[in-house]
Design brief:
Blueprint (H helix, E strand, L loop, with lengths): L1 H28 L6 H12 L14 H30 L2 H16 L5 E4 L3 H12 L4 E5 L2 H10 L5 E3 L5 H6 L7 E4 L4 H14 L4 E6 L4 H8 L3 E4 H14 L1 H12 L5 E7 L11 H4 L7 E7 L5 E3 L12 E7 H11 L2
Parallel strand pairs: 1-2, 1-4, 2-3, 4-5, 5-6
Antiparallel strand pairs: 7-10, 8-9, 8-10
């Protein structure tokens, strides 16, 4: 924006300076015969090469004619420069890019409790797909404008910031102080380390998930403030092994994740202190009457899991329900257990 303003300011200032100079000189050479408006009019039609005609009596004023000739030469270059700057801004799409950034900025300013995805490469793209499928608000941060523009054409709802995610001001622009989580999915472990450090310093309450390419980077990322570190090589190896020894399970999970009609997910729902079901058993809460979900486990506030809980399981405040269900039904469950 500053660069565009600078270029427009320079071109406009030069044009106005030439118009002002021409008006002053013509008015001076006329010795009171031509008004200020006539002098301005003559200058403008000369610069624009429209040339309706000379001012009255100019044919007898050699100095005014000579200056008009110089004004034509000087003005032609000035007008060409001004027109080229304006045309370049329009043709090169710089103004369109400014408007796009302003729209993105306003959309980000309205977002709260969103996820910031740093790096939209091979891993980051899959993160976006999952966030979209579960209708989780997110903002992308990447340095490749062309790539993000193409992705924006595919996803009209996409919100993205162009910049280096390791820099404070870029994460600030992505609304990091209002976000609830950051995904560091850049291609380099050092960059993910910097993102983690920067994000943690800007918002200590964030949940940060970092990608690790090398196994040696996991400990460093955790020390830097990452809540969880995901090794893409390890996940890939586990998937290959699962395809070999439990193919039906992996097929079920694939169908669950990729079914376009029913977005089934294993999700979580927190039992808040003010929840109407807090302190009651699963049987008393009768959650199945509210939503159609399968309760897989209950996680206590201390981090202990009770798998396949029975009707006698007490839902203590701060415990978390691990459930399997459709996105809509999970939303109903969260509404039922929230305060």
């Amino acid at each position: 924006m500053r660069e565009i303003a600078r270029r427009l300011y320079a071109a406009t200032s030069l044009l106005l300076a030439v118009v002002l100079l021409g008006t002053l000189v013509i008015h001076s050479l006329g010795r009171g015969r031509w008004s200020w408006f006539q002098s301005l009019f003559h200058t403008v039609i000369t610069l624009s090469t429209v040339g309706y005609g000379e001012l009255p009596g100019m044919e007898l004023n050699s100095a005014a004619r000579a200056f008009s000739l110089a004004l034509i030469v000087l003005g032609a270059g000035t007008m060409v420069y001004f027109a080229s700057v304006v045309t370049a801004l329009l043709v090169e799409g710089e103004l369109r890019e400014v408007f796009r950034r302003n729209r993105m900025k306003k959309r980000v300013e309205r977002m709260e409790s969103h996820i910031i995805v740093c790096g939209v490469g091979r891993t980051g793209r899959h993160v976006l797909d999952e966030l979209r499928a579960t209708r989780t608000p997110f903002v992308c941060v990447d340095t490749d404008l062309e790539k993000m523009t193409r992705l924006g054409d595919e996803m009209p709802e996409l919100v993205f910031i162009i910049g280096d995610a390791t820099e404070d001001e870029v994460l600030e622009a992505a609304g990091i102080r209002r976000a609830r989580g950051v995904v560091a999915a850049l291609t380099d472990d050092k960059e993910n380390l910097y993102v983690t450090l920067t994000a943690r310093s800007l918002n200590p309450g964030l949940r940060i998930i970092a990608k690790a390419v090398e196994t040696t980077a996991e400990a460093k990322l955790r020390k830097a403030g990452a809540d969880k570190v995901v090794s893409t090589n390890m996940i890939g190896g586990m998937r290959i092994a699962s395809e070999m020894i439990r193919p039906n399970v992996t097929e079920f999970l694939d169908i669950m994740l990729r079914d376009p009609e029913h977005v089934l997910r294993i999700e979580e729902a927190l039992v808040e202190e003010s929840s109407p079901v807090a302190g009651r058993t699963l049987g008393e809460a009768a959650l199945r009457k509210v939503c159609d979900v399968l309760i897989v486990a209950v996680r206590s506030k201390e981090g202990r899991y009770k798998f396949n809980p029975g009707a006698e399981q007490v839902l203590l405040p701060g415990s978390t329900l691990i459930v399997l269900g459709d996105h809509t039904e999970i939303g109903k469950l969260r509404g039922a257990v929230s305060g």
